[in-house]
Structure formats: structure tokens, C-alpha cells
Amino acid sequence: MSRAQIVAAARLWLGTPYHHQASLRGVGCDCLGLVRGVWREIYGPEPEAPPAYTPLWTESLGEETLACAALRHLRACDPDTAEPGDVLLFRWREHLPAKHCAILSEPGRIIHAHDGAAVTEVALTGWWRRHRSHAFSFPGVCD
Predict the structure, then answer these.
(1) What is the pLDDT of residues 115-134, one digit of tens each?
(2) Is the backbone of residue 81 left (phi > 0), alpha (psi -120 to 50) or beta?
């Protein structure tokens, strides 16, 4: 699997409307649904079903549920050296668990879904960089 293939699969989702807990290209997805959909397009069936989760960004259960799930299926890497095709996780405040994910599409750009908007490719601005908490590579990336 190449990084270019991962980014190409993620770009197929551009314009998909936001829909909490959904993961259907062209119909609706949230940030996790985007990553799940790219997984299915690259690898086939998902390795596990996600549990129910709330849309509240400020939820503070104190558990890194998203990061722990990513560790079960992806390879952790340094957020500062993440490469295109890697999954980035973000936390809205330092004391909160990561609650948002995106796919790095090129240096300085991410593809993500968020409430009130369709899947989009945007600049990885200073705000996004300051809120990165984790990075992961898909398994079997060869370049």
C-alpha cells in the first residue's frame, strides 16, 4: 500500500456531507467515518465496529478511546514527522482526550470531516498543529 493510494482514497470522500457516526462515501460521514471508509477501500472489512460515541467535542471522559482504538490497528508515529497518508488525532484542549481525526494529504494539508461541513481538504494551520496529539500510519505502507 502506498501513501499516494491512501491519499487518493481519502480524496474520493471530498464533498461527502457531515453525518455523525456515518461512514458512507457521498452520503455522509464524520471524521472517524472518513478514516473507517478509507480503511474499507484499502483493506476491506473493518477490523472492529466502533462503539457509540457522542458528537460533543468538549466531552471529557478522561479516556483516550480514539487513540487506543487507533493503536490496535495502525502504527503510531511522531506527529511532527507524519507523512501524507498518515492519520492525525487532535484534542481541543490539553486536558481533554483526542476527539477528532484527519488524514494528512500532503505536507501542510489535511482531509477531514466536521460538523456543519462536508469532507474537505484544508491547510494544516498553526491552530491545527497546536492541537495535534497523535499520529498513526496505516499498516503495510511501503513508501
Answers:
(1) 889 999 999 999 999 999 99
(2) alpha
